[in-house]
Amino acid sequence: xxxxxxxxxxxxxxxxxxxxxxxxxxxxxxxxxxxxxxxxxxxxxxxxxxxxxxxxxxxxxxxxxxxxxxxxxxxxxxxxxxxxxxxxxxxxxxxxxxxxxxxxxxxxxxxxxxxxxxxxxxxxxxxxxxxxxxxxxxxxxxxxxxxxxxxxxxxxxxxxxxxxxxxxxxxxxxxxxxxxxxxxxxxxxxxxxxxxxxxxxxxxxxxxxxxxxxxxxxxxxxxxxxxxxxxxxxxxxxxxxxxxxxxxxxxxxxxxxxxxxxxxxxxxxxxxxxxxxxxxxxxxxxxxxxxxxxxxxxxxxxxxxxxxxxxxxxxxxxxxxxxxxxxxxxxxxxxxxxxxxxxxxxxxxxxxxxxxxxxxxxxxxxxxx
Length: 369
Prior knowledge:
Elements lengths: L4 H47 L11 H17 L5 H6 L8 H28 L10 H30 L5 H7 L14 H12 L8 H36 L17 H18 L1 H16 L6 E3 L5 E3 L5 H17 L3 H26 L1
Antiparallel strand pairs: 1-2
Organism: Gymnopilus dilepis
Pfam families: Mito_carr
Protein name: Mitochondrial carrier
């Protein structure tokens, strides 16, 4: 029986959609993986600075002090805590804990780029635009916000485990054991990724993996809109600038090696990506600070899980921290400055990191389609 032409077209469309999705996932995963290896020490510093806002005495005076103390007390492996845990079991010389956040970075970027493209397709269908037409900036920002909202559900459990592992050495129990005179040369064995994950599920259930999700949702929705929106806007300015220069110099003749008017050169991808990285973190940074404080409260402020005597001597658990409650407590403790703890170093590392992401992503898309 002959296959109808419409069925053949549907098959081709489905196949091309699947291939496009696979490419987006692959490109985003590679870009995220490489950028995370570069930026992790700065991310660890950010989380540790954010987690001390509610403490009566600050452990670190600033990002440089945090990096210096971490290097002096924990070494290179401390700077990469929560990055290479799985690889340690097979390659003892590698840094500690790497796969967890690398997997998270791969999942984050793959989800962002894939969802961003699909939301653009949805908007084109709803506004009756052809598939090849570029959307206006406000539609691109809307597609990016949708991509960020979807990705936040994947990121919260990953970031919960990552943040808990990044402050392990700061926990009172770990410091007491580390400083014990009975074992001066034996470092305290810290729980690994699977142990931390199992502990969260055992004590709070699966729902506990999404502790701090409100902060992640706010950060990813608004931040991703700023991220992609800034990248697209700066890229359009760079393309327009190049076109003006070519027209002014009379270089309207294209050569095989010249970039097309809609194709970014490597330095243009990097520059627009760098601007996007700064915009992402400046947009809604306090939401990330509150999220980190919530996700590390159990380790750094264990009194939050002490049970109080209720009526009739019954034991009543202290309620879990809420986003609004933690936000108010942090504002009362240190004001706006506390809500932006670690912002400077975060923006500083996000500029080259985001440049790397878009340089690699745009490069892969250029060469492999």
